[in-house]
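Input record (Table S2, row 499):
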Amino acid sequence: MLKKILIANRGEIAVRIIRACKLMNIKTVAIFTVVDSQSLHVKLADEAYCIGSGSVNETYLNIDKIIKIAKKAKCDAIHPGYGFLSENSEFARKVIKSKIVFIGPSPEVIDLLGDKVKARSIASKVGIPVVPGSKGYVETLEEAKTVAEKIGYPIIIKAAFGGGGKGMEIVNSPETLEISLLGAQSVAENFFGNKSVFIEKYIESPRHIEIQFIGDSYGNVIHLGDRECSIQRSHQKLIEEAPSFLTEQERNELGEKVCKMAKELGYVNAGTAEFLYKDGQIYFNEVNPRIQVEHPVTEMVTGIDLVVEQIRVAGGLKLSYVQDEIKINGSAIEFRINAEDPKTFLPKSGKIEQLIAPSIYHVRFDTFVFSSYNVSNEYDSLLGKLIVWGKTRNDAIERARLAFKELTISGITTNIDFHKTILETKEFQERIVSTDFIEKASIKEKIEENEEIKVAALYAFYEKIGAIKRVKTETISEKQRRILNLWKQRSKLEQTRNI
Ligand code: ADP
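Output record (adenosine-5'-diphosphate complex):
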């Protein structure tokens, strides 16, 4: 069994992993930057090492530095959490080469799934429907035209090695195909170091569902049911639930296919298969080879500690459960509490004057901050996750109401009120949701602002990456110019986001 684990991450997930280790009597080693020195993960770990104050590349993404600390501290494993190095196969390879256990799937599996085109073909092979689209990468305008004509507009051009919602271009008509292809390729090259893109049919107003699975090194793979994560902003999840709206039969059928795919891959450790759902059709989207932000909702409905299971299987133990023992009980909802302006989604920094976490039966608040904590805007804006459970979905909503009455974070702008507004919408309560829920939601001026942000973002982005040599700024309105400036500020920050 593993004895000492370095957590190559920060924030609430670092705290979450440390707590799982403590439960298992495993020693923990934290790494932190100067701005993170107050963080709870530093206080809770048995040992903590400062990795400087530079950029993320010099700190949380500095592979050699992290491995050096792990060796020095005599760690026998590294948990990457989510974001940062969690899907970096080079990191996994180097960790393994240093005779340290990487808590995640093998580097070969990470590589395979990191290529969305390859992932699509594996899913097809086990009978999971994929979104209609190109068979492989699309390089030229001619190829793009042929695919688009075959599947019909609107289409979406996506970076094959993309992530974090970046490098996706929706194309509504042939006129904008060329510029969108160029744009997507440039973003792909700039952000992911590979300009390969592919095309899918753009599914309008889909719902996002996913299946949690985990495998051990004895060939056992189980699934732990489904989640719905349709409430998103800027293609990033904001509210997640378990189970989704699928019937028990649909859930089991999809879960079985996902397990088949994982077995085919020789998948060890936790993973999530993501799908889009529209008009009764389920389409494979991608597999995330790591623990996800929203894993607690699955824990609440199954009673299984996913991080403990991750550590067990990485240490060579068998899964503690077989498929028949997995039962979905009740309903859980997670709200991501971010330090951000709820209208522009720009991260906010500042000192938390007071934090009061709800302490109610069946409520969990995962965080790394506390009263008097200084929140910097160097990293992701996630402050914590409010997770509630109820016997039924309505009970869970009721408990969320109670929890939000208690949850207080003062001194800094957060999206707590935004969540409260969503909670009281008829659409949320009746579960009439889709990935464009927030754009559609009742806050009118936000919608207008969102549109302008999109336009401004497109200009700013193309300008930045040189896809358009010179942006004709005279075509942008005053308001757009103002938002453009905000956006520029935001995209600078986005480079340091970890999810
Ligand atoms: P990333 O890996 O960058 O997060 P994903 O492929 O997971 O990208 O897509 C993120 C989100 O983008 C999805 O949850 C969905 O909202 C939207 N999306 C992706 N592909 C499509 C599609 N074919 N049609 C409609 N929306 C899509």
